[in-house]
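REQUEST ID: PR-0412
SUBMITTED BY: lab tech R.K.
PRIORITY: routine
TASK: structure prediction, single protein chain
INPUT:
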Amino acid sequence: MLANRPARFTLKTALIASLGGFLMGFDASVISGVNPFIETEFALTRLQLGWAVASLTLAATLAMGVAGPLSDRYGRRRILQGAAILFLLSAVWSALAPDYPSLVAARMLGGLGVGAALIIAPVYIAELAPAAARGRLVSLNQLNIVIGISAAFLANYLILQVAAVQSWRWMLGVEAIPALLYFGSLLRVPESPRWLLMRGQEERALAVMSQVSGPQAAQAELASVRQNLAAATAGRLQAQLRQLLQPRLRRALFIGLGVALVQQLTGINAIFFYAPTIFAQAGAGLDAAFLQAVAVGLTNLLFTLLAIGLIDRLGRRFLLNLGLAGAVLSLGLLAWNFSAANYMLDMQNLTGIPETLQTALLPLHGELFADDRAFRAALFAVAGAEPVAAYETTLISQSIQINAPLTLFAILGFVASFAISVGPVMWVLLAEIFSNAVRGVAISIAGLVNSAASFLVQLIFPWQLAALGNANTFLLYGLFSLAGLLILSRTLPETKGKSLEEIEVLWAK
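STATUS: complete
OUTPUT:
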C-alpha cells in the first residue's frame, strides 16, 4: 500500500491542476449554445457574432504571452489560482450582461483565465510527473478540456429543455460552480519542484519530489535537474529568447510552433464553438442540433480517453500521424457531402418564419439551387439582406436536401481523429520538448501562436460559411490538415519514455 502512495499523490495533484482544462473547455464551448439566442436578441451581424465567440480567445492569446514569464517569476500554482478567480468573475458577469459590449467584456475576462490555465497546467504537471507516466498525466489536462466541452454541450441541451426564458444566461452562469471548486482545490497542491529549484528552494523541491517518486529516486532526480539548471539558468526574458533561437533548440521551437498552428488550422474550434449552427445548416432542428452537439462532445471524450491510454505505448508521433490522416479523410468527406446538397424553398412547410417574410420569398417557391451561396444570394435578392439574416439558419435548415447521417458521421470522424492525436499530443509535446530554463517562455510563445490561430478561425467562420460556402470552408480545413500531416511526419522525433533532460540532449544531437 505504501508503495502506491507516490503514484496516488501524483495522480491527485495532476487531476487538480488539470481542472483548469475543464473550465477552459466549458468556458470556450458553452458559447455554441448561446450563439442562436444572442444573435437575435442583440441583432448581431456575422462578424459581431464571430467576435462574441472569438473575443475570449483573443484575451487568452494576450494572457499566453505573459502567463509563462509570470509563472517563472511567481510560481505555477499562483498563476493557476489567479485563473480560477478570473473564471468565476467571468461566469457571473456574463450571465448578468445587459448588452452586447458587456457580454464581450465578460467573455474576455474569462479568456485571460483560459490563456493562463491552458499553458501553465500542462507545464506544472510535466514538471511534477515521472518520465514513464508524463504523457498520460499531461494528457489529463486535454482530457479535462474535452470533459469541459462535453459538459458545456450537455448543460446547454438540458438548460434549453427546462429554461424557456433567457436560457443563454443560465448556460453562461453555471460555470461559476466549478470555478469556485477549482480555486479551493488548488490550495491543496504543492508548487512545481523544478520551479522551486530554479528559485533555489532545494529542500522544498526535494520534499515534493519525494512525494512523487519516493526518497531515493527523488535524490537522483534532484541531482539531474540541478545539473541541468547549472548548465542553463532561467535568467531574464531576453536571455531565454536568445536560447530558444540557438541551433540546439531551433528545431524544438519549429516543431512546437508547427504543432500549435496545425492544431487550430484543422478547424476543430469551428466545430466545437459553432456545432449547433453547423448541424442546423445540415437540416437539423434546434433540439436535434443541440443533441448532436452532445454526440460531438461524447466522441471527443471517448477518443481522448483512448489517446491517454495509448500515448505512452504507441508514442506521440504515431498518434499524430494517424489522427491527421483521419482528419483529412473526414473533412474531405464532409466537404463532398455539402457540395452534393441541394436547396429548395417549400413555402407550405416553412415554420417559424414571419408571414411578411414568407410573402416576400414566394417567388423562390419550388426553385432548386445546387449551391448554398447561390441560395443565400437569391434569398437576399428577393427579400433583402436584413429581414433574411435573422432567419437565415432556419431557412437553410428547412430547405436543404442533404445526406444528414453522412454529415454527422463525417463530423464525428473528424472529432475522433482530432481527439486521438493533435488534441492531447500537442500539449504533451509543448510541455516536454523545451528545456527547464526556457520552458515557461517557450510554451507561452507556442500557446500564443495556437491561440491566435484559434481566434482567427472562430472570428471568420460565420463569414466563411457565407462567403465561401459550406463545402469550400471544410475543404480548406482539410487542406490545412494535409499540409500539417506532410510537414510533421517528416520533422517530429519520438519523445515517449524520455526524461525532460534526455529530450534536451536529443536536440543537441
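NOTES: The chain has a mean pLDDT of 83.
REVIEWED BY: pending
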